[in-house]
Please model this.
Amino acid sequence: MSRVFFLALLVASPLASFAVEDASVAAVQKVIQMLGDMQAKAKAEKNKEEVAFAEFQTWCKMEIPQTKKSIAKAAESIELLTAEISKLTVEAKVLGEEIAELEKNVAKFEGEKKAADEQRAKDNKAYIEESTDYGESVDVLE
Model:
């Protein structure tokens, strides 16, 4: 029996090694196939990214002149508005000085009016007294 076992072992041994070699070859082929799939997928993704980048780059090239024009226009507008602000600030200062002068004149004129009203009241009182005195004198003379 030991001879039969030994023969079986010899016969099975090469078959077992073929099975192991077949399994390892299949595994290597599977890894190679997976690497090929990964490569194809990576190339497809790279292609998509290149297309997206090209579209973005084209969009940027189209937008740059328009953006530069907008910036130039805004800079010009800022310059004009700054000049207008300066002009209006000076105008406001001048008008403020004029208002102060006019308020001073109003106060002066109101003081003069008050003095003139008081003088007229005195003159009116003096006139009434004098008129009454003349009226009495005329009555007495009659």
Q: What stands out?
A: The chain is about 100% helix and 0% strand. Confidence is low (pLDDT under 50) at residues 4-12.
